[in-house]
């Protein structure tokens, strides 16, 4: 199902929309489709694995705090996030085509950003990757789920879900 159709379905009988998940829908041209400036109340948006290669058409989302963009084809255009989503506290870019530290410079303007995920991005193989990102983005407390001292980020959803099954995945 394409992204625009999926968003239309999600909108039925819901107003205002605070949370929107359109994971695994398809973006026809690698752009955000179907999201408009009407989504001013949106606080959580998940656009995982939809084939995004650009964020240029992202509308202004002033209340957005959590943005999931993992498993897309993003390699840049992150300055759009600072312009359109100034209050982001959590950003997941894992599984994208982010290769260079300079790409992340655009995130310096996200003053509220506390948690950034870049798992499975080429940038993680850079020497001193973690130190460099923390230096570049001093407002970020958690990178890839851990702070600078390698303490794990508290999972805000751990209270809702049974957490016991996760322990034996470390083998």
From TrEMBL:
Compositional bias of kind Acidic residues: 146-171
Record key words, sorted: Chaperone, Chromatin regulator, Cytoplasm, Leucine-rich repeat, Nucleus, Repeat
Record's keyword annotation contains Nucleus: yes
Region Disordered, annotated ranges: 145-171
Gene Ontology MF term list: histone binding; phosphatase inhibitor activity
Any Gene Ontology biological process: chromatin organization
GO cellular component: cytoplasm; nucleus
Keyword Cytoplasm: yes
InterPro entries, A to Z: AN32 (IPR045081), Leu-rich_rpt (IPR001611), Leu-rich_rpt_typical-subtyp (IPR003591), LRR_dom_sf (IPR032675), U2A'_phosphoprotein32A_C (IPR003603)
Domain U2A'/phosphoprotein 32 family A C-terminal: 126-144
Pfam families noted in UniProt: LRR_9
Compartments it resides in: Cytoplasm; Nucleus
Family the UniProt entry places it in: Belongs to the ANP32 family.
Summary of the function given for this chain in its UniProt record: Multifunctional protein that is involved in the regulation of many processes. Histone chaperone that specifically mediates the genome-wide removal of histone H2A.Z/H2AZ1 from the nucleosome: removes H2A.Z/H2AZ1 from its normal sites of deposition, especially from enhancer and insulator regions. Not involved in deposition of H2A.Z/H2AZ1 in the nucleosome. May stabilize the evicted H2A.Z/H2AZ1-H2B dimer, thus shifting the equilibrium towards dissociation and the off-chromatin state. Inhibits activity of protein phosphatase 2A (PP2A). Does not inhibit protein phosphatase 1. May play a role in cerebellar development and synaptogenesis.
Record's protein name: Acidic leucine-rich nuclear phosphoprotein 32 family member
Species annotation: Xiphophorus couchianus (Monterrey platyfish)
């Amino acid at each position: 199902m394409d992204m625009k159709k999926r968003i239309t379905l999600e909108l039925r009988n819901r107003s205002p929309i605070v949370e929107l998940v359109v994971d695994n829908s398809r973006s026809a041209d690698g752009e955000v489709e179907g999201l408009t400036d009407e989504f001013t109340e949106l606080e959580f948006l998940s656009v995982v694995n939809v084939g995004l290669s650009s964020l240029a058409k992202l509308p202004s989302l002033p209340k957005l705090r959590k943005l999931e963009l993992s498993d897309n084809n993003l390699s840049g255009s992150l300055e759009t996030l600072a312009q359109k989503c100034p209050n982001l506290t959590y950003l997941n870019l894992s599984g994208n085509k982010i290769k260079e530290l300079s790409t992340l410079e655009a995130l310096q303007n996200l003053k509220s950003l506390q948690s950034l995920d870049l798992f499975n991005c080429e940038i993680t193989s850079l020497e001193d990757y973690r130190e460099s990102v923390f230096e570049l983005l001093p407002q970020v407390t958690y990178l890839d789920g851990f702070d600078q001292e390698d303490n794990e980020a508290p999972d805000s959803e751990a209270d809702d879900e049974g957490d016991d099954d996760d322990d034996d995945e470390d083998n």
